[in-house]
Amino acid sequence: MPLDFNQVGQQIKQMGGDLRQTANHHDQLVAHAWAKLEEQSPRWEHWARHAEENYLRSPWLLAAPAEPIINRYQLPKFPPNYCLAAVDGSQIDLDRHWAVECYLINLGLVTIQYGQQPYSKLHSVPALHYNDQELLLRDKDGRSYKMAGALVHAERDTREGIALARLAQEILEQSTTPLVAMQDGTLIRWSLSGLDPWVRAHFLQRYLDEGLAALRAADVPTCSYISHPKAPEVTGIARLIVNPTLNNTNKAEGLVDPYPGINDTKLFGNGWLGDGERSALFKSLSKINVEEYRDHAIYFFYLNVGSELARIEMPEWVAQRPEWVDLIHAVAYDQAHRGGGYPVALARAHEQAVVRESDRRVFRQMIEQALWHARLNNGSSLKQDAKAQVRV
User: Fold this and answer.
1) What does the pLDDT look like over 73-99, one tens digit per residue?
2) What are residue 37's phi and psi, to 5 degrees?
3) Most Cβ neighbours (<10 Å): which of 65, 92, 144, 390?
4) Judging by DSSP bridges, how do beta strands 179-184 and 309-315 pair with one another?
5) Is-contact 113 177, C-beta < 8 A?
6) Is 312 helix (H, G, I), strand (E, B) or coil?
7) What is residue 392's predicted lDDT score, i.e. its pLDDT?
């Protein structure tokens, strides 16, 4: 039976009215939250300590302000010559229905130099993995973990960070132009939080030691750009101000959220930041960041790039250098404008990295042909074969 658009139309009309009421209510909540933050901004050091003391038992994510909460900064001047190193990645996950167990990680690497000697280099680096030692992780107790799903994603994230460090080092050997290293998405490996400690350490230590630590050793200002962020960490400070005595997360009965439905984008997207302006700096108090990133702990600010509000993240050793923060502020804004609302270098890196559905089909065909030439059985499952054909 076809979709009844008469009924759907009525429901959509009702949805529009409900969303308008919700938006009006959210505007009131944002105004109230800002009033609390403005009132307490001079006491930012107190709230930073209080947040760090309570992040584990808070039912809401928190951030620690690194300066007065309501500070904001206009767009700084940036050098007419600068170079940007950018990396993005994608993958073809292990599929048990295929003829052979394997996965592929594809990294897109981009170098763009602006100014008197403009230059660009775009390329991709695919890596296929199929050996037993690549498909299984084994800890010291003999437990094994299949490289599939979340673990392939974690491996891709890890390699993005390592590849960015290596790309930056190559650029420094060839150029003296001011360099910024940029990744897409968060520098906080949230996806690792739910993994077994040994697995988490396997990925995180490589990312920190061969990625962020290498960038620090090379003296490269490093950041990431998050489009349309949904984090609620600064809003968490307002929640903490309203309710300084927090119940344990598992015993939150009776604890009412004073700002339901409000996140940082709604908080800063109310016109507080003008075009090109950024917020104060904050330290993320996510558990993995506080307890495992050490001196690479991630800080962030919000930036109005005109078309959207972006979240810019950086390690602590970058956040502690105001000239680097200003450079990242200016470069992120310039890149977003050059890219029509999203950093052009990251867009090019994504284009180099992305694996489209047509690519996946060709990849599978190449595997099947290789098995046939090697006189190996093409053992793909009947379920997978049936998906590839249309039958009635």
Assistant:
1) 999 988 889 999 999 999 988 876 666
2) -65, -40
3) 65
4) unpaired
5) yes
6) strand
7) 44
Query: Is the confidence at residue 390, as pLDDT, over 80?
Result: no
Q: Which fold has domain 72-353?
A: archaeoglobus fulgidus dsm 4304 fold (3.30.2170)
Contact 215, 168 (CB under 8 A): yes
Domain segments of the chain: what residues? 72-353, 357-387
If you write DSSP's letter for every residue of 195-247 in order, what string do you get? Answer: S-HHHHHHHHHHIIIIIIHHHHHTT--EEEEESS----HHHHHHHHHH-SSPP
User: Which distant-in-sequence residues (6+ apart) come within 8 Å of 265 by Cβ?
Assistant: 228, 229, 230, 302, 309
Q: How far apart are CA 378 and CA 365, in angstroms?
A: 11
**pLDDT tens figures, 36-48:** 999 999 999 999 9
- Measured over all CA atoms, what is the biggest interatomic distance in the chain, rounded to whole angstroms? 74
Bridge partners for 310 per DSSP:
303
The dihedral sign for the CA sequence 67, 318, 225, 329: positive
Instruction: Write down the pLDDT at residue 238.
Output: 96
Question: pTM for this structure?
Answer: 0.88
Give the integer Cα–Cα distance in Å for 109 and 111.
7
Copy the structure tokens of residue 81. Answer: 């010559």
Q: Burial letters for 213-243: b for 16+ Cβ neighbours within 10 Å, e otherwise? A: bbbbebebbbbbbbbebebbbbbbbbbbbee
Using CA atoms, how far residue 192 sits from 114, 201, 206, 323, 360, in Å, is: 36, 9, 13, 32, 26
